[in-house]
Amino acid sequence: MADWTRAQSPGAVEEILDRENKRMTDTLASKVTRLKSDSDFTSMTGLLTGSVKRFSTMARSGRDNRKLLCGMAMGLIVAFFILSYFLSKART
């Protein structure tokens, strides 16, 4: 062992190792939380991509669905902002 461990009692060394272990556990937990939120964001991106494809198909279908198309566009925009708000809150 290093010189600093010889000068301290075994209980003090154990306490230092305990603190270091807790610090490393907290660091790992925060990394796991970040990875989970990134995974959630990726799944939401896939959901939005599918919605955009359906939206584009409906837009090309003609002018009969203009009100529906406008409502869908506004709904998607609102959903995007709500989603980004919740994701920003989850990261903090």
From TrEMBL:
> Does the keyword field hold Membrane?
yes
Q: Give the membrane topology, semicolon-separated if more than one.
A: Single-pass membrane protein
Name the GO cellular-component terms: membrane
Q: Where are the transmembrane segments?
A: 68-87
Please report the name of this protein according to its UniProt entry.
Bet1 golgi vesicular membrane trafficking protein like
- Locations listed in the record: Membrane
Query: Keywords assigned by UniProt?
Result: Membrane, Transmembrane, Transmembrane helix, Transport
- The species is Aotus nancymaae (Ma's night monkey)
Note the superkingdom of the native organism: Eukaryota
Quick one: where is this thing mainly located?
Answer: membrane
